[in-house]
Design a protein that fits this description.
The protein is an alpha/beta fold and 349 residues long. The chain has 2 domains: 128 residues, 3-Layer(aba) Sandwich (Rossmann fold), CATH 3.40.50.10090; 154 residues, Rossmann fold. It is 43% helix and 14% strand. The strands form 2 sheets. Strands 3-8-7-4-5-6 form a 6-stranded mixed beta sheet, with helices on both faces. It has a 4-stranded parallel beta sheet with strand order 2-1-9-10, with helices on both faces. Helix 4 packs across helix 5 and helix 5 runs parallel beside helix 7. It is elongated and about 65 Å long. Pfam families: HEM4. GO terms for molecular function: uroporphyrinogen-III synthase activity. This is Transcriptional regulator.
């Protein structure tokens, strides 16, 4: 009996029983106390604060984003895209493009790309001598659009970002270069310089509401011949009452968070503020509140007006801007000693 037991003990020592895979973890790692377990990070939240947005074309989307992040949106459109009637420069651009008189075309915005193609295509309509009929007043026929697309496919296309890239794909154009973030004139210049020697190169630039003087100067310094082509121009909204109310709310302390998404928004907001006699109070309130800038170009415009933005988002996109503002506004306001929104006055409500 004793001899048999000793053999069994020897066998067990040499061949221990298999344990399930979680056994070692259960016996070697004691459970963490409840208060030591990871706590989920709270989602970014404006905590019910008012947030001023100067967005126009995407105002509804911006307001929805602010609401989803716990804010109360104050929508104050600062811009209006005004089409250029009988855009002779666009028509001349189309003729030069079809005549192989351009080497590179830089497209700055999605809306501008679509507008430029629509405004330029009538120049390529078949004339009476070829048996075709020109399009109606400023309208491009399918044949004019087809010729415009073919002409664009014959040159090097550069899209400033995803929106003009999407507009090109809508036309069936897939061979183009896309400028990386943050999509400023500096990145555009780097991409175009990467094409090689620019001496004598003929480059057309689709303007986005206003000239890009820095880009033109950089291209010309590299030896290129630049042709700006406007597709629309920026103007104030026909109804500026919401913008004026928002500026009064900001000057009165009724809102402490502002979101800027373009240079033109900054310029127009300050223009209307000057008309209302609010510039000094506005700058003071902005310094004590949260100023969010979507990217470097917008930041440069703010600094040119003596306004220092608190941050730019990681990516120059509207959703990233709102999320970052929701996440950081509380800390920024606390650091600046800002107690939050004051009641809205009758003028700003």
């Amino acid at each position: 009996m004793g001899h048999t037991q000793s053999l069994a003990n020897w066998f067990t020592a040499r061949n221990p029983p298999e344990l399930d895979s979680g056994y070692a973890a259960r016996v070697s790692t004691p459970p963490r106390p409840l208060n030591d377990r990871p706590v989920p990070t709270a989602p970014p939240d404006f905590a019910g604060r008012r947030v001023i947005s100067f967005e126009s074309r995407r105002a509804t989307e911006m307001a929805s984003l602010i609401q989803r992040h716990g804010g109360v949106p104050i929508t104050a459109p600062a811009l209006r895209e005004v089409p250029i009637e009988r855009n002779e420069r666009a028509l001349d651009f189309a003729r030069r493009l079809a005549g192989a008189e351009l080497d590179v075309v830089i497209l700055m915005t999605g809306a501008g790309t679509r507008a430029l193609v629509a405004e330029a295509a009538p120049a390529l309509e078949p004339g009476p001598d070829s048996g075709g009929a020109p399009g109606g007043e400023g309208e491009a026929s399918a044949q004019g659009m087809s010729r415009m697309t073919a002409a664009l496919s014959s040159v090097q296309l550069v899209a400033r970002g995803p929106k003009p890239a999407a507009a090109l794909r809508e036309l069936g154009l897939t061979r183009f270069l896309t400028v990386p973030e943050p999509n400023t004139w500096r990145e555009i210049l780097d991409v175009v310089r990467g094409l090689g020697d620019l001496s004598g190169k003929r480059i057309a630039v689709q303007e986005h509401g206003a000239p890009s003087h820095e880009l033109y100067a950089g291209l010309e310094a590299a030896g290129a011949r630049v042709t700006p082509v406007p597709a629309y121009r920026w103007a104030l909204p026909e109804d500026t009452a919401p913008l004026r109310r928002a500026l009064h709310a900001l000057a009165d302390g009724g809102a402490a968070i502002t979101l800027f998404t373009s240079r033109a928004q900054v310029e127009h907001a300050l223009l209307v503020a000057a008309e209302e006699g609010l510039v000094a109070r506005l700058r003071e309130r902005l310094a004590r509140g949260v100023v969010a800038s979507i990217g470097p170009v917008c930041t440069e415009a703010l600094r040119a007006e003596g306004i220092e933005p608190d941050f730019e988002p990681e990516h120059p996109k509207m959703g990233h801007l709102v999320k970052a503002a929701a996440a950081r506004s509380g800390e920024i306001l606390a650091r600046k000693g800002n107690q939050g929104d004051a009641p809205l006055s009758a003028q700003s409500s």
